[in-house]
Structures are given as structure tokens and as C-alpha cells.
Amino acid sequence: MTALLRYQTALLLRSQRWLPPFLLYVVVLGVGVQGGQPLLDSLGWTAAVLLPTAAWLVRICVLGEPPAARTVVAAAAGPARAHLAAVLTALGTAVLLGTVATAAVVYISDPVGADHQHRVPVPAAAAAGFLAVLTCALLGTAVGALTAPPVLRSTGRAVPALLLAALMALVVSGSPAHAAVTGLVTGSRSATVSLPLLPWAAAVLVTAAAVAAACALTSRRAP
After folding, report:
1. How many degrees, rounded to 5, is the angle at CA 151 between CA 23 and CA 10?
2. Residue 119's beta-bridge partner residues?
3. What Å distances lie between residue 30 and 34, 88, 163, 215, CA to CA?
4. What is the pLDDT, as a whole number, of residue 221?
5. What is the pTM of this model?
């Protein structure tokens, strides 16, 4: 599995297909986060924008191999393991991107509530923001796994499904990503910090089930 992850990571970096989602994330983050803004609000935005970015990265990694190379890797390691390595590479890239963004946001933001009067503890806020980033990265990975091949093979259906699913994961009540981001925004209003442990745990379970289903379908549809 380590060799597969290294292979997928090298493939992603050399292809430079990571640039569009990376640049989009940076641009949208720059629009929504400015220096001196309340810390928890900025962390909520940082996490929310990462969800569609993670979904896009999954699609890039799953479709990044030439057909011949994909066939060889699947024959050597098994189609499910090869698919899992691509998905995990996307997840790791999203988590790394979100972690760097979280650190930058903590550095430039003002550790106060939405009223700019009550201070919030920076370590606790950073931990809550990081958990929210993990939650959104996981949910984005689940969305990407369920809207990319082999689940959806047609680009005309997969891309709209990805966008719709990413939006629903952010706005629908009961979604772990919605709960994590809402917790940060609500905490900013009252200048209190609560760790989104339950949303993170739910995201782990949802993503594990989604990725397992995608990998199982990969094995069934393998030639």
C-alpha cells in the first residue's frame, strides 16, 4: 500500500492537475478570509471551502492514470487497493492543504468573537478549526468517491452530481460538515469554542462506508 500511495502521489504532482483545485481554494479562501477578522468565523470558512476541493481532488486522482497504467496497477495490486490508494492520496492532499490554511488563518485572524470584544482561546480555536477541516476533507472525499468512476462513469452526470452533493453536504442539517462549520460560526457569536468531535467521528464512518462501497464496485467492474 505504501508503494501505491507513493505512486499516486508522484502521479498527482507530476500531472499538475492539482493546480486548478489548489488555486480555486486559495482564491476563494482569500475572498472569504481577511486579516483581523474573527478567528472562528474564518476557520469555518476555511473548512467549508475545503469540502468541494477534496471532492475535486478525488476525481483527479481516480482519473489520473492512463488506461494502460491503470490496468497494470490493478493487475499487480488488485483493483480495490489501487482505487483505495488514489482516494487516500486525494484525502491526504486535502488534509495537508487544509492544515496549512488553518495555520495561516490562525496567524492572521483576530482571536475574538463576532462582536470583536470577547476573546477566544487560540489553542482551542485552532483545534476546533482543524477538526472541522478534517471533517470537511473526509466528507469531500466521500462525495468524490461516490461521484467518480466506477460509481458514475459519465462526466455529464458525475460533475453535476459532485457539485450538488458537495453543496448538500454543507447546507443540509444533520450533515457532519454542516454541524462542524455551524459550530464554529455559532461559537464565534458567543465567543465560545466547542470541539466538533461528533461531526468528525460521523464523517469518518460515512467516508469509510462510501470509500469501501466504491472500492468494492471497482473490483466487481474490473475486467
Report:
1. 45
2. 112
3. 7, 27, 21, 35
4. 59
5. 0.94
